[in-house]
Design goal:
It catalyses: uroporphyrinogen III + 4 H(+) = coproporphyrinogen III + 4 CO2. It is an enzyme of class 4 (lyase). Keywords: Cytoplasm, Decarboxylase, Lyase, Porphyrin biosynthesis. Catalyzes the decarboxylation of four acetate groups of uroporphyrinogen-III to yield coproporphyrinogen-III. With 347 residues, the protein is an alpha/beta fold. The chain has a single domain (11-345), classed as TIM Barrel (Alpha-Beta Barrel). The chain contains 17 helices and 9 strands. The protein has helices at 11-16, 37-44, 48-53, 55-69, 82-86, 108-113, 119-122, 124-137, 150-159, 167-175, 177-201, 218-224, 226-236, 254-257, 273-276, 299-313, 333-345; strands at 74-75, 91-94, 98-101, 143-148, 205-210, 243-247, 264-267, 285-290, 319-323. Helix 16 links the parallel strand 8 (285-290) and strand 9. The longest helix is centred in the middle third of the chain and has 25 residues, at 177-201. It binds coproporphyrinogen III. Coproporphyrinogen III is lined by residues 29-34, 43, 48, 75, 77-81, 98-99, 146, 162, 209, 211, 248, 326. Coproporphyrinogen III binds at residues 29-34, 43, 48, 75, 77-81, 98-99, 146, 162, 209, 211, 248, 326.
């Protein structure tokens, strides 16, 4: 049985179900991160991967933004690349440069060698973290789990690091479509098992990060990324928990994103919500889409932009306030606090 605790503040879950609310719930992508001095303190104790793999520390990091900012949802502290490491790729996080795979996937033999891990055995620390977080949250707010969407995970596996042009993964798609399909099938099975484990451990909802899908044109997204995302969403549907799809580069893909089957679409900052919403099915909830850079400016500018985002939503039910991408490490805590106050107490 799934031990999913009941929550006192259920605004986030009600927004996912498109209930009419007095105010929108707010959480922030990358809400536990380097912009918080308290995160830096926890981080000093170990490496980033060490932090992800130590349930006690991952729990402390997850709870920081709930305790310090009073957000309406918690998100598991981890990284999208954790299950990929378990597929057999050696992962390093270098200061300032981000993730790096030492043995990226380039050939059919590389693809064949990849394991489909047993999530409970090979990434059991994530399930342990989910259980410990729920114990410490004690039902204050819901807990989001997450995974990278298959395409974004494949970009890291093939490129070996964060990329600008995505030449290597696109070359694989176009010159070895069979190999690409074999890779995506393994990644998709890995993602499904990884999310199933999180559901069993007690998450209340999950978000799929397809951060780099915006590097594809709509036709290629339809053919090479969307089917795998749909497969994940379809497999998880039996659990009945809300699902969110995030893409960075929403504008060209929104109509197809709508077909992925998630309950919520998370919109980046480039497309104003009054332009996005008419392209979204009425039964779907919407999340986003403040430009994270606004948090580096002034209270006045922030208030103006929060007002603009909320005006774009109008009185459509089913809206979750968030940024259009992760909060930047340079963000002052005071500005994050102001944002939460503006959304929760009004402007
Ligand atoms: O939202 C949250 O607070 C939960 C934790 C979370 C992290 N990464 C923590 C993290 C989540 C949901 C992610 C997802 C993730 N990881 C994505 C998709 C979302 C997005 O931002 O587009 C991607 C592409 C990654 C891969 C990744 N991890 C990169 C590119 C980097 C380096 C960039 C950077 O900001 O340093 C990371 C590292 C990372 N993931 C940090 C954190 C808090 C910083 C690590 C540190 O403490 O040094």
């Amino acid at each position: 049985m799934v031990a999913r605790p009941a929550v006192k503040n259920d605004l986030f879950l009600r927004a996912c179900r498109r209930e009419r609310l007095d105010r929108p719930p707010i959480w922030i992508m990358r809400q536990a991160g380097r912009y918080m001095p308290e995160y830096q303190e926890i981080r000093k104790k170990t490496s980033f991967l060490g932090l992800c793999k130590t349930p006690e520390l991952a729990t402390q990091a997850t709870l920081l933004p709930i305790d310090l900012l009073g957000l309406d949802a918690a998100i598991l502290f981890s990284d999208i690349l954790i299950p990929v490491e378990a597929m057999g790729l050696s992962l390093e996080f270098t200061e300032h440069k981000g993730p790096k795979f030492l043995n990226p996937v380039r050939t059919d033999a590389d693809i064949e060698r990849l394991a489909v891990p047993d999530a409970r055995k090979d990434t059991g620390f994530v399930g342990d973290a989910v259980r410990l977080i729920n114990t410490r949250l004690d039902g204050r707010v819901p807990l989001l789990g997450f995974s990278g969407a298959p395409f974004t995970l494949a970009t890291y596996m093939v490129e070996g690091e964060t990329s600008k042009e995505f030449t290597k993964v696109k070359r694989l798609i176009f010159s070895n479509p069979r190999g690409y399909r074999a890779l995506m099938e393994k990644v998709t099975r890995t993602v499904i098992d990884y999310l199933e484990m999180q559901v069993e451990a007690g998450i209340h909802a999950y978000q799929l990060f397809d951060t780099w899908a915006g590097s594809l044109c709509a036709e290629h997204y339809r053919e090479y990324a969307l089917p795998y995302t749909r497969e994940v969403v379809r497999a998880l549907a039996r659990h009945g928990i809300p699902s969110i799809l995030y893409i960075n580069g929403t504008a060209a893909l929104l109509d197809l994103m709508d077909q992925a089957g998630t309950d919520v679409l998370s919109i980046d900052w480039r497309l104003p919500l009054d332009k996005a919403i008419p392209r979204i099915s009425p039964e779907k909830a919407v999340q986003g889409n403040l430009d994270p850079v606004v948090l580096l400016t002034t209270e006045e500018a922030l208030a103006g932009e929060v007002r603009r985002v909320l005006a774009g939503v109008g009185d459509r039910p089913g809206y979750i306030f968030n940024l259009g991408h992760g909060i930047l490490p340079e963000t002052p805590m005071a500005m994050a606090r102001s944002l939460v106050r503006m959304v929760q107490n009004g402007l």
